Amino acid sequence: MLQTLQTQTLTQTLTQTAEAKQRSAGIMPYLKAYLSLLRFSYHQNFAVVIIGAMSNGLPMAGASATATTLLQLYFSFNICLYGALYAINAITDKEEDSNHPEKRKRPVASGFLSVQHAICFVAGLLTVGFSTGYLWFGARVCQMYVLFIALNLVYSMAMRNMKFMRFWTAGLTCPCRLHLGAMVLGAQPALPIYFLAYFFMTALQSSKIRIENRKLKTEVNGFKPGVVEGVSFVGTAIALYFNYPNNKVIATLCVIQNIVYIVLPNLSSGAEKALRKYYTCDC
């Protein structure tokens, strides 16, 4: 009798364990899909926020307090607010992404996540983003959040499809990131730094779109190869001139970023392939 009872208990335990594993396995693909909507591979752009915050050196609050503030801002802004914006892009770009060799694997483009579920995810992220933004940083930061939403919606719904407008409007969020970091930590970046941020982002967007769509040597949005990059490089050179001799570290970082993300893929097919893999690694 005792042996029979032990056998039944062991069988029941094994069955429960197997069912738990099945439930876990069923949840994990959805968890991975929702996390991919946050596009963590793009989160290096939070460096622009940090540059804005540190543009006048280490804030008087000290290293520990500054790090805590930046972590809070990263969660509220980069994960929640921009996670919602990336998810909105996944919805608005669904048809275009579904025809792309890599992007068609994205959860919304592939149909793994429905548009309705993605919208609910957006709503949740925006709620948390604005709540934490207000609680931690006040109403002014929430106003900046509204500006980011407006810029992204105007770009996604209209400007990205207008000839000659895509890259110039896509670059507008970069100086706003710079200003957000400066606002939160009380810095005052010099005007040329805003132009460095803007022109880098316009050139980056042109390069990124061409690399993703394998059109590095063809016309995109009405511009022949190198035109947007050339104009942006001239703007960057002028901003560097007026910035000199201040903020040498920021100026150096800007030059390095331009070389890595814009110049190298035009000179090396290996760099182009590596960046394409990086830009689409969330797929």
Which features characterize this protein?
13 helices; 0% strand; mainly alpha; 283 residues; globular; single chain
What ranges have pLDDT less than 50 throughout 5 or more consecutive residues? 14-24
Share of helix among residues? over 70%
Oligomer: single chain
Mean pLDDT: 90
**Separation, N- and C-terminal Cα atoms:** 56 Å
Task: Report the β-strand fraction as a percent range.
Answer: under 5%
| Helix-strand category | mainly alpha
What summary fits the major beta sheet?
none
Structure report:
This protein has about 280 residues and is an all-alpha fold. About 75% of the residues lie in helices and about 0% in strands. The protein has helices spanning about 1-35, 45-55, 65-90, 95-100, 105-110, 115-135, 140-155, 165-170, 175-185, 190-210, 225-245, 250-265, 270-280. The longest helix has about 35 residues, at about 1-35. The model is unreliable at about 15-25 (pLDDT under 50).
